[in-house]
Design goal:
Layout lengths: L2 E3 L7 H10 L5 E3 L7 H15 L7 E12 L2 H4 L9 E2 L5 E7 L2 E6 L2 E4 L4 E2 L1 E2 L8 E4 L5 E6 L2 E8 L7 E8 L8 E8 L3 E8 L2 E8 L4 E5 L11 E4 L6 E5 L3 E6 L5 E6 L17 E4 L6 E4 L4 E4 L6 E4 L10 E11 L3 E10 L2 E6 L6 E4 L10 E7 L12 E6 L2 E11 H15 L9 E2 L10 E2 L5 H19 L2 H19 L11 E2 L1 H6 L14 E3 L9 E3 L4 H17 L3 H20 L3 E3 L5 E6 L2 H6 L7 H18 L2 H14 L6 H4 L13 H17 L10 H15 L5 H9 L9 H14 L66 E2 L3 H12 L6
Parallel strand pairs: 1-2, 3-4, 9-13
Antiparallel strand pairs: 3-32, 5-6, 6-7, 7-8, 10-11, 11-12, 12-13, 14-15, 15-16, 16-17, 18-19, 19-20, 20-21, 22-23, 23-24, 24-25, 26-27, 27-28, 28-29, 30-31, 31-32, 33-34, 33-40, 35-37, 36-37, 38-39
């Protein structure tokens, strides 16, 4: 029996014994030569379990959760790609959104709708296209400005079933305004001033406190050109600001006299001005009165303190220009108090700038968050402190294709885990196998159908390990039941072939074969080779052959977890049996995985000729070496005496001076840009974990742990800029945990990656190629080189919820456009690092 010694380093006794008790080792645990009593070990294990389950009550963050609505004409415009979202009762796109005390008001198609139930407001006057609602800062619908008149209103919106508005007083300008492009309102105890930006310039209508028309001021500006935007510095009410493609004017609120103007840049003529381009939107900061000026080129800021103007573009972090709308919202930030958010609507998505957030600029594009990316208007429903479970205001987005209510919800990672666990159970468990599922209807998860997958075993192994670790942390019997279910899926893949030691890539039940929901090749990496099962227990099943090293690595990783973590003895014994069959078969066949054809599979080759001397596989030299070393170590931990002797001989053969597999680990990860294989990161770190969790770092065993640690340290250093949740967790788990000087930084990146992983795992269309804030890496990659394919690594990756990464076998720097909305990824890539980090005490609940 291998001796587990912990005497070579100074480690607290409790920590050392938790390592021996909790980690996967079959060895006798001793500390400094003294055997510790079973009673003491039990106490240590209990203390460790208590520590792991300790709850950090402050570890919440904000998730943006959308409620999306389509215009009723959307289904007729695009029947094939219409998501199953509720309909807004208007054929035409929304024109304006505002917030009153009674709820949200949306102007569309000549009608006004109240609240998220979209109750029609009974207007007693017509509301033609080109009109705007006038809403006071106090949340009152004051008036409606149409192309040819303004009417003050007396509204009863509190009656939810039949809200109505009747005119109080109306006035018509001497020359019709034409389309009303923007309005602004300033109010005091005696009057209301309505500023109207229209096709025919800037006008002002003053109303009494009783809403009677007091006076109308027309042609305020020395220009009859359209005025696109207007704003008032409420509540100070000393200045109105208006802008178009020529100038930005500053008008005295009381006298209506132009105090000053700034030139606006004429981009076409190349006549420069202080403002970078045609003014499209204006908003005053509620914090300090700074004026924000949206335009097609940049975002300009006029500072109230000194009147100077700064410009924010791509170099300053602005993800996209072509700004159409501006607003401000409030959110509570964990540890930072209440923060003001700047909301920027554009022709291609919504931008949220929040100080102290990571990243500072958030970019929301496409159906993952929005029912339309060409934004027409923005509004904010004050929700901070108003409703339990919300951390900030609700953002209302009116776009050309639909409406979105973005709630800012208080979330914890534990809460996110529950949501993903439900997703896993409901849609991603087929015969105990997991993978993505296909949707016949665009964006409709209710139609999800799980098919076969080339890597069913690999993906299923991730959730198998995740669920067992989750059970050990929480003692949740549902997690144990799921763990057992997915373990049985691994058993199926091993037994359906009828050949001990050979696992199938995937399998289909007789029912699936008959209904033609399987053998679809939903994710084809290699040629389709299917066989009928010859196993009596799986009569009528079919299985896919030519199993790859991806699958064997996944099976070793998953079965090792079951063999050492399952509380069910029968499962432990079964997993140990399958492990030994797999590794014995590989060792006895010259380190190759033999298919049902009695020939090696295409990728199942770990023999010295292929590892060390086959030129097309030179990039796999370290990866394949680490894999086979971990296979031998894991099998050694559960093997009998004869098997252990065989594994020992095999290990010594592979690590002798001639083969030097242990030395191949020194520079395992290939970093050449043309062959930087991110899938190989997964096929490396899983073996790192399988090896180190079996052969504890501080034990004297047969295996050369120092070589593995050299490989792990270098690999981890290379992938660290990815901010990866799983690779950082594996590194910290075996590198001192909280005693590691990098602990705080890497834990922070683990949390960041878990928090920014999208809640919605549908493969929605995602686009980043139009962004102006990204620096692109022109170096060749393993995949087809596309324009704007990946960003420079020195800047770090975008958060996962701004790109298409759903697994950690993908390049986190890829930002190329893609996604079709017809599949949903399984949540295993999130659940494994979460539960693993909890299991090793890196994260609290």
């Amino acid at each position: 029996m291998t001796l587990c010694r912990v005497a070579r380093v100074c480690v607290p006794c409790v920590q050392a014994f938790r390592v021996c008790m909790v980690r996967w080792t079959s060895s006798l645990c001793t500390t400094m030569g003294r055997v510790v009593s079973v009673a003491f070990v039990a106490v240590v294990a209990a203390v460790a379990a208590h520590n792991v389950q300790a709850t950090d009550k402050s570890s919440w963050y904000t998730e943006l959760v959308p409620s999306r609505f389509l215009y009723s004409s959307a289904t007729s415009r695009n029947k094939t790609e219409t998501p199953p979202w509720p309909l807004f009762p208007s054929e035409q796109p929304g024109e304006q959104v505002g917030v009153v005390k009674e709820g949200v008001l949306i102007l569309a198609d000549g009608k006004v709708f109240l609240g998220q139930s979209f109750v029609p407001v009974d207007f007693k006057i017509p509301v033609p296209s080109g009109s705007k609602m006038v809403i006071t800062a106090a949340g009152t619908l004051l008036a409606i400005a149409t192309p040819n008149m303004l009417c003050s209103l007396d509204c009863n919106l509190a009656t939810s079933n039949s809200p109505s508005c009747a005119p109080v007083d109306c006035t018509k300008p001497s020359t019709p305004w034409g389309d009303v492009l923007d309005v602004a309102c300033g109010s005091d105890v005696t009057s209301h001033s309505v500023w109207i930006a229209s096709q025919n310039g800037l006008s002002k209508v003053v109303l009494s406190a009783e809403k009677a028309i007091d006076r109308v001021v027309e042609s305020i500006l020395p220009s009859s050109d359209p005025i696109f935007a207007v704003a008032v510095n409420s509540p100070a009410n000393t200045m109105a600001v208006a802008g178009n493609g020529e100038k930005l004017w500053f008008v005295d609120y009381e006298t209506n006299v132009v105090d000053r103007f700034e030139w606006v840049t004429d981009v076409q003529q190349k006549w420069g001005g202080v403002i970078d381009d045609r003014v499209t939107s204006l908003a005053f900061s509620p914090d300090n009165g700074d004026l924000f000026v949206g335009n097609p080129t940049k975002l300009d800021i006029l500072y109230s303190s000194n009147g100077s103007v700064a410009s924010w573009g791509g170099d300053e972090g602005l993800p996209y220009n072509n700004i159409t709308a501006l607003a401000f919202s409030r959110v509570e930030s964990n540890g930072q108090g209440t923060i003001t958010q700047l909301l920027i609507g554009t022709t291609m998505g919504l931008i949220i700038r929040q100080e102290g957030n990571d990243p500072l600029w958030r970019y929301l594009y496409g159906p993952r968050y929005l029912a339309g990316s060409f934004i027409v208007d923005l509004a904010v429903v004050p929700m901070l402190g108003e409703k339990e479970g919300l951390t900030g205001d609700t953002i209302v987005v009116v776009a050309k294709d639909g409406l979105t209510f973005l709630e800012q919800r208080k979330f914890t990672l534990e809460q996110k885990a529950r949501q993903f666990e439900a997703m896993l159970s409901e849609r991603h468990n087929r015969l105990g196998l997991t993978s993505g599922c296909q949707m016949p209807r665009y964006g409709d998860v209710s139609t999800c159908i799980s098919h076969d997958d080339d890597n069913n075993g690999l993906w299923s192994s991730l959730v198998t390990v995740a669920e067992y670790m989750g059970f050990l942390v929480t003692n949740d019997k549902e997690l144990l039941a799921r763990a057992s279910s997915f373990f049985n899926g691994l058993v199926l893949l091993n037994e359906v072939t009828g050949k001990p030691g050979l696992m199938a890539r995937s399998a289909c039940s007789p029912t699936e074969v008959q209904s033609q929901t399987c053998m679809k090749g939903s994710w084809i990496h290699d040629k389709e080779i299917w066989y009928n099962s010859t196993s009596p227990a799986y009569r009528g099943y079919t299985w896919k052959g030519d199993t790859s090293s991806d699958e064997s690595t996944g099976h070793i990783f998953g079965l090792a977890a079951v063999a050492h973590l399952s509380p069910i003895e029968e499962e432990k014994a079964k997993a140990s049996k399958l492990l030994n069959e797999i590794v014995t078969g590989i060792v006895l066949n010259n380190f190759q995985l033999i298919d049902i054809t009695n020939k090696p599979t295409t990728w199942g080759k770990w023999d010295p000729m292929h590892v060390n001397h086959y030129r097309p596989w030179s990039d796999e030299r370290g990866v394949q070496s680490m894999q086979i070393i971990s296979y031998l170590a894991v099998a050694y931990s559960v093997g009998n005496k004869t098997q252990r002797q065989m594994y020992e001989r095999a290990y010594k053969e592979l690590t002798n001076r001639s083969n030097s597999y242990n030395r191949n680990l020194n520079n395992l990860k290939i970093t050449a840009s043309c062959d930087d294989n991110y899938s190989d990161d997964e096929l490396t770190f899983l073996p790192y974990h399988a090896f180190l969790s079996t052969c504890d770092r501080y034990n004297d065993t047969l295996f050369d742990k120092d070589a593995v640690f050299r490989g792990l340290n270098r690999s981890s250093e290379i992938v660290r800029p990815f901010r990866p949740n799983l690779w950082n967790t594996i590194f910290l788990a075996f590198s001192g945990k909280r005693n590691n000087p990098l602990f705080d930084r890497l834990k922070g990146d683990i949390i960041w990656n878990l928090q920014t992983w999208p809640l919605d795992l549908i493969d929605w269309p995602v686009s980043n190629s139009h962004r102006i804030d990204l620096e692109y890496d022109r170096a060749p990659t393993r995949v087809k080189q596309l324009k704007h394919a990946q960003t420079r690594h020195s800047n770090g990756p975008l958060p996962a919820n701004e790109r298409r990464q759903y697994r950690w076998n993908a390049n986190p720097y890829i930002v190329a456009d893609g996604g079709d909305g017809y599949s949903e990824s399984d949540p295993g890539a999130w659940l494994l690092p979460y539960w693993m980090a909890r299991y090793y005490g890196i994260l609290d609940s």
